[in-house]
């Protein structure tokens, strides 16, 4: 079974008014939302545990064949909303948190954004980006933006992968520039 967890901060929006980095509390184990801002903005990451089991039913053509290249694609794992940004520019970085060493080396987890409405332009994030343990720019914009869908893709799982439970969390780091 492969699982990714995305959980919402307790207050749905983490209002930050100091220049120091702060971490919004999350329910349970899962996505960490790190906020580092000099200006206030409300950020909401709403999601829930995502899990998928793979077995004989997912084989391309039954026994003796392998899994499809993309076992999961365009799986909704979270919704991000940014409000009260008052026209300020901001960026969202992502990284993978968890025991990467336990994962088969050929398996990659990628995310992209889709959807959304609001009054700001957003650049980047429309193509899948492979998650790594190092934070990387996911997308950036200015002003408010609501209901940005975060979609997940899982690829590289083969029948040679040892059976087991693989988990990770996606960390979102929001910064007002």
Describe the protein in words:
It is a single chain. The chain has 177 residues and is an all-beta fold. The protein has one domain. 0% of the residues lie in helices and 49% in strands. Strands 1, 2, 3, 5, 7, 10, 12 and 14 form an eight-stranded mixed β-sheet that branches. Strands 4, 6, 8, 9, 11 and 13 form a six-stranded antiparallel β-sheet that branches. A hairpin with an 8-residue loop joins strand 2 and strand 3 (33-36). The termini are far apart.
Total helical segments:
0
DSSP strand tally = 14
Helix content: under 10%
End-to-end separation in angstroms reads 39 Å
Q: What would you say about this model in short?
A:
The protein is mainly beta and 177 residues long. It has strands at 2-5, 22-24, 33-36, 42-47, 49-52, 70-83, 89-97, 108-114, 117-118, 122-123, 129-130, 136-142, 145-155, 166-176. Helix content is 0%, strand content 49%.
Salient structural properties:
single chain, 177 residues, mainly beta, six-stranded antiparallel sheet, 14 strands, disordered N terminus
């Amino acid at each position: 079974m492969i699982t990714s967890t995305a959980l919402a901060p307790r207050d749905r929006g983490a209002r930050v008014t100091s220049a120091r980095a702060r971490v919004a509390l999350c329910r349970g184990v899962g996505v960490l939302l790190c906020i580092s801002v000099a200006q206030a903005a409300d950020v909401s990451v709403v999601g829930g545990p995502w899990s998928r089991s793979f077995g004989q039913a997912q084989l391309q053509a039954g026994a003796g064949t392998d899994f499809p290249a993309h076992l999961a694609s365009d799986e909704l794992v979270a919704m991000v909303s940014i409000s009260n940004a008052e026209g300020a520019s901001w960026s969202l970085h992502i990284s993978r948190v968890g025991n990467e060493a336990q994962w088969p080396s050929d398996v990659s987890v990628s995310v992209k954004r889709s959807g959304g409405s609001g009054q700001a332009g957003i650049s980047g994030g429309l193509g899948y980006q492979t998650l790594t343990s190092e934070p990387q720019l996911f997308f950036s914009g200015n002003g408010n933006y609501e209901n940005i869908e975060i979609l997940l893709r899982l690829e590289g799982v083969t029948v040679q992968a040892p059976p087991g439970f693989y988990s990770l969390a996606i960390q979102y780091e929001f910064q007002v520039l």
